[in-house]
Design a protein that fits this description.
357 residues; alpha/beta; Rossmann fold; Helicase, Ruva Protein, domain 3; 7-stranded mixed β-sheet; binds S-adenosylmethionine; S-adenosyl-L-methionine; transferase
Length: 357
């Protein structure tokens, strides 16, 4: 079935199956690169349907591998598909698709972590942030380590409206380890609520679309996989710099099961910790005995706004790093121990010398 419905006009001609492509080009999955392939084209069609309306769109697919999702995207009657693949072994198989869909696909052998998405598509596709999302989509089934790293990078790009978001509110449909997908979309108070939930949801509408059981992949990964769709919000729920939000959220979630005042406290140097923590929670109107996962995004917004004010009053506050203070304290303690031990040794030596006299 064509993924974009009855109106689709382009269909790939009959091709060898993905399984045949894997055999033909000897594409053994590299376990150390966490490669797991999707062979079932009904599932790849389902992922692509979750991306939304792709007719006439420009699509970036990250990590196409043997090309299952790639075929579903091409069958969605897109205008242009750009695939970025790091592993050269997949390029000949992708070239076969290029021949089957002339002019539709551009293959880039490269690393998505460094690839400049802002240069990938024509400038004419750019839309104002306040308008509907542009006809630019990102789709990908990447190794879990890469997708988590990448979504944090891309969320920062959403905040600064650069990278893939120079085109406007570019939508993304990406796979994650099921637990990470659940964290990304977790609501206030839920067991999965975490740093990732706040960082993703203050910037995007996040939808955990469906779960693919691990057994659908070849080779089978140890975990199930979640497909997540992101649409950047017109107005971020927290209007502060990404790094500031990241610092507040990271600190608050430092002690996930403790009262939130414990995490807020590590934003401040020891000397003023108690007083500033009390002041920040009071000014933000946040109950200090809530657990981090019980805090709503508006409450994180209040915390970030108050912290921003405190940073403006004291320029040394934002650079303050709790871990660095802890490390220095430990070093001081260790050198103190050496000095004390050396003092003891010297005293003993002096006593011995006195006895010798
Ligand atoms: C989990 S496999 C999925 C392959 C294919 N999309 C599928 O669903 O069957 C991940 C793919 O991403 C590629 N990949 C891994 N890291 C990458 C990176 N940094 N940039 C581009 N591609 C990458 C791998 O070589 C592999 O082809």
């Amino acid at each position: 079935m064509a993924v974009s419905g009855n109106l689709a006009t382009f269909r790939l001609p009959p091709l060898p199956t993905i399984g045949d492509i894997i055999k033909l080009f000897n594409l053994r999955a590299e376990r150390q690169l966490s490669q797991n392939f999707l062979l079932d084209l009904r599932l790849t069609d389902k992922i692509v349907r979750k991306a939304g309306k792709l007719r006439d769109a420009y699509v970036l697919e990250v990590g196409p591998g043997p090309g299952g999702i790639t075929r579903s995207i091409l069958n969605a009657d897109i205008t242009k598909l750009l695939v970025v693949e790091k592993d050269t072994r997949f390029i000949p198989g992708l070239k076969m698709l290029e021949e089957a869909a002339p002019g539709k696909i551009q293959i880039v052998h490269g690393d998505i972590l460094t690839y400049k998405v802002e240069k990938a598509f024509p400038k004419s596709l750019r839309k104002n942030w306040e308008n509907d999302p542009p006809d630019v989509h990102i789709i990908g089934n990447l190794p879990f380590s890469v997708s988590t790293h990448l979504i944090i990078k891309w969320l920062e790009n959403v905040a600064s409206r650069d990278g893939p978001f120079t085109y406007g509110r570019t939508q993304m449909t990406l796979t994650f380890q099921k637990e990470v997908a659940e964290r990304l979309s977790a609501s206030t108070g839920s067991r999965q609520r975490s740093r990732l939930s706040i960082m993703a949801q203050y910037l995007c509408n996040v939808q955990n679309c469906f779960t693919i059981p691990g057994r659908a992949f070849v080779p089978k990964p140890k975990v199930d996989v979640g497909v997540v769709h992101f649409t950047p919000l017109i107005n971020p729920q927290i209007e502060q710099p990404f790094k500031l939000v990241e610092k507040v959220v990271q600190s608050v979630f430092q002690f996930r099961r403790k009262y939130c005042h414990r995490g807020v406290a590590i934003l401040f140097p020891e000397a003023e910790r108690l007083q500033r923590t009390e002041e920040m929670l009071m000014r933000a109107d946040v109950d200090p005995t809530l657990r981090p996962y019980e805090l709503s995004i508006p409450q994180f917004k209040s915390l970030c706004d108050v912290y921003r004010g405190l940073c403006e009053e004291n320029s040394a506050l934002f650079p303050y790093n709790f871990r660095e203070e802890l490390r220095q304290k430990k070093m001081m303690k260790r050198s103190r121990k050496y000095i004390d031990e050396e003092d003891e040794e010297e005293e003993e030596e002096e006593e011995e010398e006195e006895e010798n006299i």
